[in-house]
């Protein structure tokens, strides 16, 4: 009789627990290790709660390229890039700039879209097998376009996405405000909007906690929280107390920290942390029910019922996870300018900040690095959206690797 294969997954965010699910489903004996006592306490905790299966646009684009001097000068409140950093940071920036072409932008966007569509199907399959209550709602999504130039650019990428079968279309201002009356209260011009009816929302943190509970109860998965991993090797994990754990497979799924674990053993992954913020406030009298993305300000609005969640801001080169009150105040002001009556902004909470692992081309890295060693990270702002699809891809590459052994 074949011996049960053992896997250790480093990281218990949405990527880690979904990776554990697909491996455990395939018969692996899985152990998850995370430095936090509880799961999903990093980037999976305070995200925008939007399952943006349609809005997969790569960050690197020709539009961003023209903004680089402004971003480096920190003149943009929504997106900033640090001037000083390590040699790895500068190499990342060079690769990012190489992806700031129209062909690369279209390719990267459609590659992530394919993963998002796979993720949506995988989520449906999971929920058919294991109903999980995580406030999952198909609300649809509107991306606000402020200028005619933005509308023209959007038409090209939307047309390319429609060719894949995606239900997404461009609306004019009247169509957008008829669909979501809250947009009528916007203090700035709305030239149009991108609408995707099948995008959804859900509590990522709650999903991760509930899925881990299912894994422990039904699949024999074990969770070791509050334990730091000092170093790794092929089929080996060394903890901070120098205890060594062995397994047939080690999966590194701990976000931007994957770089520090993998570099000493000769594996370079092009990932940099991107700091983001979120806050909640009581819903206002003109709170949107459809999920909203203001592309100009890089913020999203998600209606939680009694509170409005606003998430956004992108800061490259900042690894401090504390909430900068000035940056939070800036985001609250941006949200107020975008949708003045969406929330009672004067009663906003203290906010949250976290680090999202980003690749230069916005495509996550899910692959075998060596026998007994795999990585699943680099999902940027779409970790929640892409988690299930990436987990399925991880399971496939592991199966292929095992078949070749």
How would you explain this protein's 3D organization?
- The protein is an alpha/beta fold and 405 residues long.
- It has a single domain, classed as 3-Layer(bba) Sandwich (FAD/NAD(P)-binding domain), CATH 3.50.50.
- The protein has ten helices and 20 strands.
- Strands 4, 5, 6, 7, 14, 15, 16, 17 and 18 form a nine-stranded mixed sheet that branches. It has a six-stranded mixed sheet with strand order 9-2-1-13-20-19. It has a three-stranded antiparallel sheet with strand order 10-11-12, with no helix packed on it.
- Helix 1 packs parallel to helix 7, helix 1 runs parallel beside helix 10 (383-404) and helix 4 (102-129) crosses helix 10.
Rounded to an integer in angstroms, the radius of gyration calculated over CA atoms is: 21 Å
CATH topology: FAD/NAD(P)-binding domain
Termini separation (Å)?
Answer: 18 Å
Structural class determined from secondary elements:
alpha/beta
Query: Order of helices and strands, N to C?
Result: EHEEHEHHEHEHEEHEEEEEHEEEEHEEEH
Mean pLDDT: 93
CATH superfamily: FAD/NAD(P)-binding domain
CATH class: Alpha Beta
Bin the helical content: 25-40%
**What oligomeric arrangement do these chains adopt?**
single chain
Major sheet: 9 strands, mixed
CATH architectural type: 3-Layer(bba) Sandwich
């Amino acid at each position: 009789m074949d011996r049960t294969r053992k896997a250790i997954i480093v990281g218990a965010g949405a990527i880690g627990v979904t990776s554990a699910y697909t491996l455990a489903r395939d018969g692996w004996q899985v152990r998850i290790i995370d430095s936090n006592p509880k799961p999903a306490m990093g980037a999976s905790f305070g995200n925008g709660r939007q399952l943006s299966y349609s809005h997969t646009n790569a960050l690197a684009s020709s539009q961003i390229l023209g903004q680089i001097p402004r971003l480096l000068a920190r003149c943009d409140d929504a997106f900033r890039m640090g001037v000083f950093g390590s040699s790895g940071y500068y190499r990342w920036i060079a690769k990012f700039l190489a992806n700031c072409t129209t062909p690369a932008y279209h390719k990267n966007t459609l590659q992530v879209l394919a993963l998002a569509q796979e993720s949506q199907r995988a989520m449906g399959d999971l929920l058919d097998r294991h109903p999980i209550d995580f406030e999952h709602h198909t609300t649809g999504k509107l991306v606000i376009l402020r200028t005619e130039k933005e509308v023209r650019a959007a038409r090209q990428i939307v047309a390319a996405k429609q060719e894949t079968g995606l239900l997404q279309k461009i609306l004019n201002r009247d169509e957008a405000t008829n669909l979501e009356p809250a947009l009528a209260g916007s203090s700035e011009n709305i030239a149009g909007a991108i609408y995707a009816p099948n995008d959804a929302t859900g509590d990522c943190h709650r999903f991760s906690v509930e899925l881990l509970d299912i894994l422990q109860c039904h699949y024999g998965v074990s969770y070791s929280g509050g334990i730091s991993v000092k170093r790794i090797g092929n089929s080996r994990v060394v903890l901070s107390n120098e205890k060594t754990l062995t397994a047939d497979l080690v999966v590194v799924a701990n976000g931007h920290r994957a770089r520090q674990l993998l570099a000493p053993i000769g594996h370079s992954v092009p990932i940099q942390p991107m700091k983001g913020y979120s806050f909640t406030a009581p819903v206002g009298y003109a709170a949107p029910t459809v999920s909203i993305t203001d592309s100009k300000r890089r913020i999203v609005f998600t209606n939680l019922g009694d509170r409005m969640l606003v998430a956004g801001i992108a800061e490259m080169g900042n690894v401090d996870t504390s909430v900068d009150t000035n940056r939070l105040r800036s985001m609250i002001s941006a949200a107020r300018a975008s949708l003045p009556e969406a929330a009672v902004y004067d009663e906003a909470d203290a906010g949250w900040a976290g680090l999202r692992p980003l690749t230069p081309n916005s495509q996550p890295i899910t692959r075998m690095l060596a026998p007994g060693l795999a990585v699943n990270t680099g999902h940027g702002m779409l970790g929640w959206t892409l988690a299930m699809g990436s987990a399925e891809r991880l399971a496939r590459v592991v199966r292929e690797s095992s078949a070749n052994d």
